[in-house]
User: Fold EFHD1 protein from Ciccaba nigrolineata.
Amino acid sequence: IRRYDSGRDGYIDLMELKLMMEKLGAPQTHLGLKNMIKEVDEDFDGKLSFREFLLIFHKAAAGELEEDSGLLTLAKLSEIDVSIEGVKGAKNFFEAKVQALSSASKFEAEIKAEQDERKREEEERKHRRAAFRELKSAFTQ
Assistant:
């Protein structure tokens, strides 16, 4: 991701994604690029963080990307051809993949923790509302 982050801000924006896809040999339309970002842009900031970038590969592995999706193309093009890269390149690639997969596992754990926290907060809100209604009904009788 750093290779394509020309702005050096830790994100891949629309123009950087456009350049990335062109370099990978799969240029996209402006609308296609916007849809690619929208599909994994969890914070709706219009650009991809490293976490959102990893989400592309997580969704691809889980079969959650449309067949004609630019993201699926990106995930497929990110695979390595050993005959071109050689064994050393493949070794580096697989080491990077292992690291990315462990990051993805950490990422999944973070998402689960966030979901559990939201669920707990919602339960607390329901409990407070019920307690308030009970107290209110005691005063209105």
Observations:
- Residues 80-91 have pLDDT under 50 and may be disordered.
